[in-house]
Amino acid sequence: MSYYVDGFVLAVPKAKIEEYRKLASLAGDVWMEHGALSYVECVAEDVPYGELTSFPRAVQAKDDEIVVFSWATYESRAKRDEVMAKVMADPRLKPDMENMPFDGKRMIFGGFTTIVER
User: What is the percent of the chain where pLDDT is above 90?
Assistant: First the structure.
């Protein structure tokens, strides 16, 4: 079975990682309630700063920030679009822009169709 995947990369201040974990846990619940097949959030452990490109460079991570990589899976692009519309309308995730635990302007995200799967 092929899946549709949304991927996200962002930088979170190390001092706010627990606050971010709580937000991510809530977001995961919301995504799953609205129909995602899976939802995963990971913090960087082995992501070197590359000379030309890298995860830290991509999100302009500062010395006091950690890179977060996350993804959600769906049965199809159509299902993802349906789920995402519900997620974006869910009042539990309405952002308090002044108190977000990360800079959303530096977040990278996109949707992907699987081409190899084991």
Answer: 90
Give residue 97's domain range: 4-113
Average pLDDT over residues 11-15: 98
**24-47 b/e (C-beta count within 10 Å ≥ 16 → b):** beebbebbeebbbbebebebbeeb
Q: Is residue 76 part of a domain?
A: yes
Q: Where residue 34 falls among pLDDT bands split at 50, 70, 90?
A: very high
Tokens of 57: 């460079």
Give the number of domains in the chain. 1
Q: Is 38 a domain residue?
A: yes
